[in-house]
Amino acid sequence: MGRRARLASLAWDALRARAGGHPAIAARQERRLTDMLAQARRVPLYRRLWAGIPERAGLSALPPVTRAEWVPAFEESLAAPGLTRAEAWSYMQNAARAGQPWLGRYTLCRSSGMAGRKALFLADQDAMDVYWALWLARGWLPWLGMAGVARFGRRGGRVASLIATNSHYASAAMVRRPSPLGRMANVRSATLSILKPVPRLARALERWQPAALVGYPTMLDQLAVRRREGALALDLVLAVSVSEWIEPASRPRIEEGLGCPLRDSYAASEFLAIGFECPAGWIHVNADWVVLEPVDEDLRPVRPGETSHTTLLTNLANRVQPVVRHDIGDRVSVGAHPCRCGSPLPAVRLEGRQNDVLVFSDGAGRSVTVPPMGLIVTVSGTAGIESRYQLVQTGPSELSVRIAFRPDAAAGEVWEEVERRLRSHLRSLGLPGVRVVRSPVPPGRSARTGKLRKIWSELPVATV
Fold it and tell me: Which CATH number is associated with domain 358-463?
């Protein structure tokens, strides 16, 4: 079966499963989970972690996998023999390869790791086809509707994605992967780096004139302000949010400013199409292909309506690197009642992934907004730091960095590199006068949520 035929078959199955309601979704999940657990038992990592657990044991009897266990176990986690972390990491050193098939077959992406080492995730072509089918059948088509599809086509069918392009993040792995729909889809897709200044991005968008815009909500918010002020001429059909949490107050501002609906998506390196937002504002989980388990601090399931301490994810599509009960760190609450949109798929809300947009003074009386994701990708590529750094705006022209270094790193040299990267990024945004200082305060987790917040401001916006 060719790729287009397989994509059509998967999309049709997704539509049939939703139409079949809870029984159809549950039957598919059970069958695929049984097959995936059988596959995972052939993988060295799970043979070791599940030693002594009967094969007939259900999912809840299996131990969760933390990042600390996953990061050093790349080779152990693979069903494909002969692939090594060193080879994968070497391939990923070229950011231009993000989304391009490794060895002609696999998609690689990375996430933050432990002690400076990155968690690597590998997906085969079959898994990528599932992600594509879910995005089409349960994301783009429902979001657009028949009228929207027609308008999208009349506007040229072009899509622009504003993402971090300087590494193999999940968003780049999905957006920059060659489309199974063929060349016509590929030439209608453009990717722009969020590390560029907003005015430069706005000019590029005006030249490209996309019908749909995909990006981090903090970036979409800034573009919405420019369009509302007459500084950006776009005629959009749809805006799609990725990676970041949408602040409730920003949603109407984005929709009004961009002149189109905004829809949210839920994805992770472990599964690139976890769920999609419905008109009622809930994220509906693709439960026929992924299992989400919201759990408390003792890893016990939380009741519907309660917010979890973390969430465990099991991927039912990716057989080359099985992901079973992986702790993804997200705080999730499951809807206690059926969603009024009518979808039988589980409805969830996410808490977290919340970082402030920082506002600095450029020294000439003007305020410059700095999206958080650009700062995160600027720092996270530095060798020698641990992943639990924090960036805090402590003054109109001061950024304080709370940082921890790897035990084997030369702290002074690594700090100079972090400072250089941040100053270079801020200078590119028109902020050469912002001071970057190393804080004596170590990175710390929130006392309320237990999570590590990356970026925030200690100043009210009116101060700048």
Answer: 3.30.300.30
